[in-house]
């Protein structure tokens, strides 16, 4: 209703305003309940691009099968994260590790991998002597390749270090596509090795100072969703370690022998 100096609601308008106010109040209450439910059921994981693509995401159905009530949401980001941020429940981070660190999940080894498509007819696998015949794919620089060649007393040779990529996951993909032999962390190649998309060169692997750590939001680490996820990741990493050890001992039927010093 319009007055000379102001506008007021009619009786019907006041009734509508009261009804809308109640609806908005109910909506806010429902959104709050959903958010509280998310806190129990949604697990927000921050990790690196390569680990998310090559290790975590292919395994997520296994966790969901065990714990169907939880919804995993992965933020693949190589930048550091603030674990005090309520938007992050847990971070799996790759970097320098030390034995005895309670957050340590898996210490890496570097292994040379290639696509079976590189094998000639009748050839059972690639060996050290074959490295000079293919591009050797590097992450950033050939330094790790030189370390592996030194481990195997094979520094003398005409090697092609002409290609580099910025992520080890990209290297693994390039190797699977038959573009050369890549030296990558075992964890990044593990899924493709199991699937037969990659094979390992029969040689001594290179030690690596980096690995994976499990870091939890301190306000949430006792929540069931984090406890279940920690147990599952730890078990999966332990299984990968057993495969690595079996490959070193030459007892794994699905992996070529890789000798670990």
CATH architecture annotation name of the largest domain = 3-Layer(aba) Sandwich
Q: Which class best fits the helix and strand makeup?
A: alpha/beta
| Helix fraction by DSSP (H/I, runs of at least 4) | 25-40%
| Oligomeric assembly | single chain
Strands, count: 9
Shape label: elongated
Report on the structure:
The chain has 261 residues and is of the alpha/beta class. The chain has helices at residues 11-41, 49-66, 143-151, 168-176, 186-194, 224-249; strands spanning 42-47, 71-76, 90-96, 104-114, 136-139, 164-165, 181-185, 199-200, 206-216. The protein has two domains: 42-106 and 218-240, 3-Layer(aba) Sandwich (D-Maltodextrin-Binding Protein, domain 2); 108-210 and 242-249, Periplasmic binding protein-like II (D-Maltodextrin-Binding Protein, domain 2), CATH 3.40.190. Helix 2 links the parallel strand 1 (42-47) and strand 2. Helix 2 crosses helix 5. It is elongated. It starts with 10 loop residues before the first helix and ends in a 12-residue tail after the last helix.
């Amino acid at each position: 209703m319009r007055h000379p100096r102001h506008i007021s609601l009619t009786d019907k308008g006041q009734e509508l305003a009261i009804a809308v106010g109640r609806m908005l109040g109910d909506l806010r209450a429902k959104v709050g309940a959903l958010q509280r439910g998310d806190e129990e059921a949604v697990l927000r994981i921050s990790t690196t691009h390569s680990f998310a693509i090559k290790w975590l995401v292919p395994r997520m159905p296994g966790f969901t099968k065990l714990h169907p009530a939880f919804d995993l949401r992965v933020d693949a980001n190589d930048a550091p994260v603030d674990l005090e941020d309520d938007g992050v429940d847990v971070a799996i981070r790759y970097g320098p590790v030390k034995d005895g660190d309670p957050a340590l999940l898996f210490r890496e080894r570097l292994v040379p991998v290639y696509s079976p498509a590189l094998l000639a007819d009748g050839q059972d696998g690639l060996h050290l002597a074959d490295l000079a015949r293919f591009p050797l794919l590097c992450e950033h620089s050939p330094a790790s390749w030189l370390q592996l060649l030194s481990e195997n007393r094979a520094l003398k040779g005409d090697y092609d270090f002409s290609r580099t990529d910025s992520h080890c996951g990209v290297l693994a993909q390039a190797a699977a596509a038959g573009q050369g032999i890549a030296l990558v962390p075992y964890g990044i190649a593990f899924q493709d090795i199991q699937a037969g998309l990659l094979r390992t060169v029969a040689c001594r692997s290179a030690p690596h100072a980096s690995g994976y750590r499990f870091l939890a939001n301190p306000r949430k680490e006792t929540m069931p969703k984090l406890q279940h996820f920690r147990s599952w990741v730890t078990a999966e990493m332990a299984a990968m370690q057993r495969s690595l050890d079996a490959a070193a001992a030459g007892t794994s039927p699905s992996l070529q022998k890789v000798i670990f010093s």
